[in-house]
Amino acid sequence: MAPSATNSSSAHASFTPAKIEDRLDINGELVPSISSKRVDVINQAAEKLAASVYEAGPEDVDLAVAAAKAAFSAWSELDSSTRAAQLTKLSDKIEQRLHEISYLDAICMGRPVHNDYGIGVAVMRYFAGKALDLGGNTSLNTADFVNISFRQPYGVCGAIILWNISTTLLAIKVAPCLVTGNTLVLESSEKAPLSNLLIAQCALETGFPKGVLNILSGYGRPYGEAIAKHMDIRNLSFTGSAATGRAIKRPAADSNLKNATLKLGGKSPLIVFDDVDLAKAVPAAQWMKEAMTKIGASTDPLADGTLRGLQADKLQFDRVMGYLDLAKKEGLHVELGGGREHAQGYFVEPTIITGAPEDFKVVKDEVFDLALFANDTEYGLYSSVFTKDVSRAWRIAKKLEGPTQTVDRPQNVLA
């Protein structure tokens, strides 16, 4: 197990776990990777090593998939209420350890400890509550026949998640998959694996059957690719960038034509009309992570009162700064921010750019920062409209493209 977590401020002691879990969760046991290779996890605020975890490889994926396959029959034959009860126990255990989870996300990807970490718990309980809705259909439309259809689990599923809201994303992947009778092999991001490995520990402590839930850590290549192309994985759910989504889709199709569901990065327009109260609309439109929160001083993510975190790593920081430099070179108007904040840590000032043409790269690409545009984009995540005019809200919301539209509030996680 990794060394004890340390923190320079005694005020944060309540957020510090006694140990940081660094092992893989395979077949109901926490184990080192077969290769014994490790991944360094960097504290982005301090720009120093926070921890290191075992790096899974294709051989570890094979073990996890074999365990999930062996566990599938017994798990899928349980009644759905029993599976739901197991998920509820897990959500209760996670809730008890949210202070540790928030600490781990803060030290590895800069998310403030006082962000709403309870969303993941709510997601898990929501899907557990849907267990009794898992019905089928009957039809008498064919003469002399009764047609009956019912839903069957896929079997072994794979999930690959992003770093930005890792606890919530884990819940979104785990809960619906397991409550419907599937088993799962989940890949956490190498940038933010610590909270996911703690949740693996929670699953073991609540008595999850061996092999039902397997949680690994490591790089997208080679072990993420191994999940995508594995012949015994029947369904794959991925959250991440469009480029990685394409890379995932190809081996998924080339292997066993597994069903692959992709939630990819994109721009999400937020339209505020002139009839709204800005004093209410602006706070309501605050975003959920790092720079996606209230505009204020970006400081230590472990500190009381920190509302806005920092970039996930140097690669992401350099990417954002590159976009901002490009905007300035192209003569766009930087109304707010536009530069680095603080000499240490990957902090970027809250930034608003105006006057950008719709085909400009900053408008089209997701950069994980406060560059707000209502725009035409190839891939939309969700759209929001703020107005007092109900008929206008419905008219505009129907025309906006994307899977989710909201009125007078930002994205609903449990929509």
Name given to the CATH homologous superfamily of the largest domain: Aldehyde Dehydrogenase, Chain A, domain 1
Estimated structural class: alpha/beta
- Give a count of the beta strands, DSSP E runs of length 2 or more: 16
Distance between the termini: 39 Å
pLDDT averaged residue by residue? 82
What CATH architecture of the largest domain do you see? 3-Layer(aba) Sandwich
- The geometry reads as globular
Give the H and E element order.
Answer: EEEEHHHHEEEHEHEHEHEEHHEEHEHE
Number of helical stretches of at least 4 residues:
12
Largest sheet: 5 strands, parallel
Helix content: 25-40%
Strand order of the largest sheet: 9-8-7-10-11
Q: Which residues sit in consecutive blocks of at least 5 with pLDDT less than 50?
A: 1-14, 288-297, 366-375
- What is the CATH top level name of the largest domain? Alpha Beta
Q: State the domain count.
A: 2
For this structure, the CATH topology of the largest domain is Aldehyde Dehydrogenase, Chain A, domain 1
Q: Indicate the proportion of strand residues.
A: 15-25%
How big is the Rg? 22 Å
